[in-house]
Amino acid sequence: MDWVLYMSVIGTIAFAASGAIVAMEEDYDILGVYVLGLVTAFGGGVVRNLLIGVPVTMLWEQGMLLKIALLAMTLIFLLPSIWIQRWRTWESFFDAIGLAAFSIQGALYAVTMQHPLSACIVAAMLTGAGGGIIRDVLARRKPLVLRDEIYAGWSILAGICIGLGFARSTMEIVVLFLVVITMRMLSVHFKWRLPKRSFQRMGGTG
After folding, report:
1. What average pLDDT does this structure show over 135-161?
2. Domain hosting residue 110, numbered range
């Protein structure tokens, strides 16, 4: 549907720009900017396709989204630094839109192929958060989505809702989309964290 395509475009722009900015922060050249931008925008979807049996070659059928991603990365590379810093103040919001759009898209792929609930959850998580994980690994960073924020958890929520049939109609999907965005932004604002246990401070004891 048109609104799904529209949200996919926004998510592609946000994730491609995010990858490009990380590449520049790590002092990569222009090739590195394009590589990190592309894997952030499309990497999660490629891994998802491998796991749920969708042909990986479907990536090349998204010619418009590829062109949009390339345009977004080029603009980010050419923009003055001060403009990029201003954009980053909205980064979490656009990232939340991309997370919601791609998580729902991934889960719907799995449902369409009649996969079980577990596949819906994995497809949602990989599509929504997988690109960011690949980006961070290539940038030699610890993946933020696995250590510091409730991020992939909202993808899992989208996968569960769609896999259990709670979000099938257009209105239900729109509501789920808005819920994921809202919860992601609340977790950023209030700095919600999942429980963790670290052994780093235990090394000097004894």
Report:
1. 84
2. 2-193
